[in-house]
Amino acid sequence: MSTLGIIGLVLAAIAGFFAILVIVGATRLRGMRKGYRARVEGAGTAELSGQANFFGQASEGKAQVRGLGTLLLTEAEVVFVQIMPARELRISRDSITSCRVTRHFLGKTQGRDLLVVMWETNGMGDAAAFDTPNISDWTSRLDPSVS
């Protein structure tokens, strides 16, 4: 076999390998999207929802991965469904003690306002922060005293 033929075979093998990677990646991405949509739909009927960036949960400490997802307010809960890593945070509306607006949380600072929701479960307080564009809608529904 000539040198040109060997180079052609190597290039074809490399192209085939990359094609397989693209197909596998696209299949995984499609599965992740389908799972994400199912988790959002499984949260229930939302009276308020929107894209949000999760800034962390106080009880989990500072070493958390921020992530994009959907923040939903249902009749019974505040639910955050994170895209990646696949995570859900559910906060019963009955357990919410307050909410506030700030620009920093767990040592992380943002150049715009963050929604911080505080709640209590079994006598233990916790909080989570979200960067969402419609903070005033959230605060008016979760804590009418915040304007």
Topology:
Elements (H helix, E strand, L loop, with lengths): L2 H40 L3 E12 L9 E8 L2 E6 L4 E6 L3 E10 L2 E14 L2 E8 L3 H8 L5
Task: List the keywords.
147 residues, 33% helix, alpha+beta, PH-domain like, single chain
Quick overview:
The chain has helices at residues 3-42, 135-142; strands at residues 46-57, 67-74, 77-82, 87-92, 96-105, 108-121, 124-131. By secondary structure, the chain is an alpha+beta fold. It folds into 2 domains: 1-42; 45-142, PH-domain like (Roll).
* Average pLDDT score: 87
Query: How many whole angstroms does the radius of gyration measure?
Result: 22 Å
Based on secondary structure, the structural category is alpha+beta
How many domains, as an integer? 2
Number of strands: 7
Give the low-confidence spans.
none
What can you see in these coordinates?
This protein is α+β, with helices and mostly antiparallel strands. Helix content is 33%, strand content 44%. The chain contains two helices and seven strands; from the N terminus they run αβββββββα. Strands 4-3-2-1-7-6-5 form a seven-stranded antiparallel β-sheet. The longest helix has 40 residues, at 3-42.
